[in-house]
Design goal:
Number of strands: 18
Radius of gyration: 20 Å
Shape: globular
Largest sheet: 6 strands, mixed
Strand order of the largest sheet: 6-5-7-1-8-18
Number of helices: 18
Strand content: 15-25%
Length: 395
């Protein structure tokens, strides 16, 4: 609730923001742990609860967070039954990383690195070389992929070490720059239907004595963005993907481990002025801002040179009761983007970083009309967005 005009706002302390479990329980730690168990050189088991397997399959369901599975036992009976298996039988989730968004999370999964190292720190981020906003999901404007993200993927290193490696996903993703920098290595097998992906993933898993297979489904996220997680359309997708997970689990070859996870959760935000703050219509928030990046729940704010401290002050005064509002250096010091920040990544992070605490987003109705119309959103550090499952089935 806003304070009376004569009182200073009560700001959310930055040390109350939950920091992702980088190094022990984040998405970035999953593939390195699996690769270490398969004796791929250079990797150590970062998630100590996991037991090695010769054949590992990761099924990533876009947008299906821990809280969503817990809340829907009727629509997802199979996934819900696996909750006690999560994270090596501890019944605990992983954390996605910050921001909790697809481009960032997929890069963390595939490279085994936190955002501060792989360098995809949000839905959109400024390219310090050009001064333009770079959409890291759609890869616009075009940027040389290996310059933007130079590290090898875990799949590439596993493939080089003799592990049978494959990705099974929609054919449209095969040549995308995000796939190339985050998920390439071994074979890519494009399949249109979810059922075909599950069947092919099981076949690829059986094709090697040591196998590392990744498969992906996107429409839980798609329906959540469009209709919200309290919609029949979203629940229908949840029921469908629950069947896909069961289908894959029932086909596992011997000596296999299936891990079902997600890139983020999702939260529905009401369509009212209190819940949706429109940057494009707010002169205070726009003052001194050259570029607005990120997304509604996790904003990178790039100030006009010399206006950085003024922008930070105003954003704290206007939003600091509902958002954790940090300077770039404060967000880095708090560990939001990981324990270390590569030099090339530093300028991609906003001069101000705003992460939502309350059920509220910062829209941009003029410059981001599609994103501003979404019912379900994600990106911040709250449990409903951050926590993702690591459900396990073994054969």
């Amino acid at each position: 609730m806003a304070q009376p005009a004569w009182q200073d706002p009560v700001l959310l302390p930055l040390d109350t923001a939950p920091v992702p479990e980088y190094g022990s329980g984040s998405l970035a730690d999953l593939l390195p742990t699996l690769a270490a168990g398969q004796e791929v050189p250079g990797f150590t088991a970062a998630i100590p609860e996991l037991t090695p397997a010769d054949r590992n399959c990761v099924f990533l369901i876009d947008g299906l967070g821990w809280e969503q599975i817990k809340a829907h036992p009727d629509e997802a009976p199979f996934l819900h039954s696996l909750l006690p298996t999560s994270r090596g039988g501890t019944g605990r989730p992983l954390t996605a990383g910050f921001p909790s968004t697809t481009a960032t999370s997929l890069a963390s999964v595939g490279t085994g690195l936190p955002p501060g190292e792989h360098g995809l720190p949000g839905y959109t981020a400024r390219n310090p070389e050009t001064g333009e906003l770079m959409n890291q999901l759609r890869w616009k404007p075009w940027t040389a992929p290996k310059v933007w993200q130079p590290y090898p993927t875990v799949f590439q290193l596993a493939d080089a070490a003799g592990v049978h490696t494959a990705q099974v996903s929609a054919p449209t993703f095969e040549q995308t720059p995000l796939t190339k920098v985050a998920l390439s290595g071994g074979s890519f097998l494009g399949r249109l239907s979810g059922e075909d992906r599950m069947d092919v993933a099981a076949q690829r898993l059986a094709a090697g004595d040591r196998s590392l297979v990744y498969t992906y489904y996107s429409e839980v996220d798609g329906k959540g963005h469009r209709f919200g997680t309290d919609s029949d359309a979203w629940r229908g997708q949840l029921m469908y993907v629950d069947g896909l997970a069961r289908r894959l689990a029932e086909q596992l070859p011997p000596r296999s481990a299936l891990y079902i996870t997600a890139d983020h959760g999702m939260i529905d935000i009401p369509f009212d002025e209190q819940s949706r703050i429109d940057f494009d219509e707010d002169w205070e928030l726009r003052a001194g801002v050259a570029l607005l990046g990120g997304e509604g729940r996790a904003r990178h704010v790039y100030a006009v040179p010399g206006a950085e401290s003024d922008v930070l002050t105003v954003w704290r005064e206007v939003l600091g009761e509902q958002f954790w509002v940090a300077s770039r250096d404060e967000a880095i010091a708090a560990g939001w983007f990981g324990p270390t920040i590569d030099e090339r990544v530093y300028g991609r992070i906003g001069d101000v970083v705003a992460a939502a605490h309350d059920d509220v987003i910062i829209t941009a109705s003029v410059n981001e009309p599609h994103e501003s119309a979404m019912a379900g959103v994600h990106g911040s550090l709250t449990p409903v967005e951050q926590l993702v499952p690591l459900l396990e089935v073994r054969s």
